[in-house]
Amino acid sequence: MALDRKIAYIDLSTGKSEIKPIPLEVRKKFIGGRGLDAYLLFNNAPQGCDPLGPENTLIISGGLLTATCASATSRTHIMAKSPLTGLLGSTNMGGFFSAEMAWADFHHLVITGKAEKPVYLWIHNGQIEIRDAVKLWGKSSTETQWAIREELGDQEIKSAVIGQAGENLVTYANVMTGIKNAGGRTGMGCVMGSKNLKAVAVRGTMDVKIAHPLEALEFNKKFIEQITTAKVNKTQGTLGTHFIWGATNSWGGIRTRNFQFNQMENADELEPESLDDIATETMGPYHMTGCFGCQVHCRAQYRIPSGPYAGIYNEGPEYTSFGAFGSEPDCNKAETVLTANYLVNQYGVDNLEIGSIISWAMELYELGIITSKETDGIDLRFSNADALIEMIHRICTRKGWLGNVLADGGIPASEKIGKHSFDYLIQVKGMNNLHSDERATPGLALNIATSSRGSDHLRSRPAIDLYHLPESVLRKIYSSPVPYEGPLSSDSMEYIGKPWQVFWQENCYMAVDSIGICKYHTTFLGATLPNFEDWPRAIYLNTGLELTPKDIWDAAERSNNMERLFNLREGLTRYDLVKGDMLNHRYFDEPCLRGAPDVIGIMIDRKKFDVMVDEFYGHHGWDKEGVPTQATLTRLGLEQEPTHLL
Amino acid sequence: MEKILTVNYEKCTGCRLCELVCSVKHEGVSNPSKSRIQVVKWEDEGRYVPMICQQCEDAPCQSVCPVGAISRDKEFGFMKVNYDVCIGCRSCVSICPFGAMNYNTMARKVFKCDLCDGDPQCARFCEVKAIEFVTADKVSSLKKREGAARQSAAGKQALAIEERA
After folding, report:
1. Which of B15, B16, B102, B126 to mutate to test the interface with A (most CBs of A within 10 A)?
2. Choosing among B20, B26, B151, which should be mutated to test the A contact, i.e. which has the most A CBs within 10 A?
């Protein structure tokens, strides 16, 4: 059996670590990556624990196929209780970290306790060492990574690190690896900071066994062809992920000025093609870069063209940065987006969260809810790029009253600011929404409302909705590996059938996050991309593990229920605007004002939305409160949890 | 005609799939440290250079070998190691100007690119064609064409700037 990577349990308080194998039965039940993380978190983090306390459990993992001969399988997953939401904290990043971790003999690191002073973990070929990081404290994300390489004398070391935002316990601080790979959501960098853990450095030269090497190699070639022939990936591999931003914006699906509009005007400079001319010209014609073993290579390389950071090299900016630093604060200069993107990568903070929270503060400022007294004189109007950049600095360093308040996250900030400020906070479960405006796409609205880690576009998004594919194609995708004969609609503005799509997509992405593949190699944006029926062969040839598509589906469903159980245990209730499966009232009360004719005037129908949630719970086997029924738990073999098998 | 493995580092996206497929093909495991090709990276400037054996005409590895274990393969033209003769002194590893001769600490053997007996997997899997396996005469003609394209683009740009001014 090729699956001999292990779990390391590391207690930073005592400095002790223990290494355990992963039993095959647990593999089959939870596969690996995010699925197994969910099991480990539910079993290891005590109920009601303080997210910033030593008892919170931070799990860093690679997927089942990480570092094997299957394309683009280097996603790193990180899980803990979230300091931002108080619920499930979970984030996923690309790069090279998890593959290197696998070559160093580990698939999961379970980190508890708190070090007395700043430390970093050095993990090398099965060895775990806790090293002093006092000298690294205060360094940015890339400075930290390069310093570790210098200190240990090996340029091939990969590190998952925090920047200053994580040290300062900004509740949405992220974990960074490389220039721009970010484990962005739910503040996992803040958890690392609370443990005095500056970085986890890995380097491995051990074999990752391949069950059937030559066949796996040939299968990979086919897999790659399937991936690279999809037009969406060709586009992505040329322009980067924000290629879709322009299309969505012209249609009217981009949240602008916090939530006042659904389209950004005068945004020519933010179109991917313009950016290509402005910022990547110096990088030569082939300016895209990829994660380990990836053929999509969706990251653009750029140099900041002008301003105080002119000439600095960076990667991205992703789709999300265009929303966070472009449309939401209504700043239409490429320089602003590129600069902000560089700063958040260096500080190690979630671009989406910080951009959204500043845009929220901008609306509050324009409404007079906060004044220049709270902003220390900063003119926090929309479109003020200097104010946006200054607020990024202030939040990450907790400078000034407002910077410090906003660093705590949206809900605590709204409590401190008061005066109906909460009504303007576009969040689910305490996490800000992506810049997309889902009022015209009920399926996507259901997705963000019910996602296990708070408002989220990568957990169950049927983004394929926007293509208006024929129903026959949708039926082909959504009826496998379990048959589905209920309603489906190729109209993205419909409510009917969407709960199944969101449910299906949720299981699909759980499987993807557990196997360790990137979502661009699945049906996220293209109907022909690999799916449940393609993965068993890849898994078998690489690991020798025989799973059917239905086995993978079941494991994904089991893992999703595990996440649900965690959230319920930590206080999720259906209609709660703070910790529930609910949307901000503006989705239901304020119509879209811009965009294509079919979008103008549209908003989410409260009753229909409620029916969608009911139906979605029904597909899951959950009751009206969103709690898994006994029958569901028994069917999935979860009735004894926590079982503490690991 | 003899084919040559060429690298255009400007095209490399730094994904290191070449390292993976090389180790799987030759060793049956995923392990870049056992790969015959390695991508050297300067991540803070976005520069990635795949380093491979150049199969040098006047090969230092061959010249330095004290026992004559290294010779040119007649069929495919690559430099190969005769393990029946090799004494594992690693002189070839020390002298190779490209770092393309490697040493496997587990097997205690030197190893190098053998062009996968005429079907190099690194080139086969490189989607962006940063690594290509082409006939010898094509190498310089391809480079000429690329160089000419750059020159002509620069010319057009200069003209446009002149017109604007």
Report:
1. B15
2. B20
Which residue in A209, A24, A191, A25 sits closest to A109, CA to CA?
A191
The tokens of A555 are what?
Answer: 């494991």
- For residue B25, give the nearest of A206, A217, A284 by CB distance: A217
Closest CA–CA distance from residue A348 to any residue of chain B (Å): 16
- pLDDT score at B142: 78
B1 pLDDT above the threshold of 70? no
User: DSSP states of A9-62 as a string?
Assistant: EEETTTTEEEEEE--HHHHHHH-SHHHHHHHHHHHHSPTT--TTSTTS-EEEEE
Residue A177 near residue A145 (C-beta atoms within 8 A) = yes
Answer yes or no: do A146 and B44 touch at CB < 8 A.
Answer: yes
Least confident of A127-131, A410-414, B86-90, B142-146: B142-146
Which chain B positions have a beta carbon within 8 Å of A313's beta carbon?
Answer: 44-46
Q: How far B57 CA sits from the closest chain A CA (Å)?
A: 31
Query: What type of residue sits at position A87?
Result: L
A 10 A CB-CB count for A631 gives 10
C-alpha dihedral, A622 to A33 to A64 to A530, nearest 10°: 60
pLDDT at B140: 78
E strands in A394-488: 427-428, 431-432
- Among candidates B13, B33, B125 on the partner chain, residue whose Cβ is nearest the Cβ of A205: B33
* Cis status of the peptide bond prior to A591, with omega within 30 of 0: no
Mention every residue, 6+ apart, whose C-beta is less than 8 A from residue A622: A564, A628, A629, A632
Q: Does A313 touch chain B (CB under 8 A)?
A: yes
Q: Which amino acid, one-letter code, is at A37? A: D
Among the partner-chain residues B15, B43, B121, the one whose CB lies closest to the CB of A293 is B15
Give Cβ neighbours of residue A644 (< 8 Å, ≥ 6 apart).
Answer: A43
Task: Report angle CA A199, A203, A209 to the nearest 5 degrees.
Answer: 130
Assigned token pair, A498: 């969407």
Q: Considering only alpha carbons, which residue of chain A is nearest residue B25? A: A214
Q: What's the average pLDDT block by block, 10 residues per block, for chain A (646 residues)?
A: 89 97 95 97 97 98 95 94 97 97 97 98 97 98 98 97 98 97 96 98 96 96 89 85 88 94 93 83 77 91 92 91 96 95 97 97 97 95 97 98 97 96 96 94 95 91 85 91 94 94 96 94 81 94 96 98 97 96 96 94 97 97 97 96 90
Beta carbons within 8 Å of A228's beta carbon, 6+ residues apart: A234, A237, A295, A296, B127
Q: Do B127 and A68 touch (CB under 8 A)?
A: no
Q: How far apart are CA A561 and CA A622, in angstroms?
A: 9
Of A146, A208, A294, the CB nearest to B29: A208
- Closest-CA distance, A385 to chain B, in angstroms, reads 26
Integer Cα distance of A581 and A195 in angstroms: 30
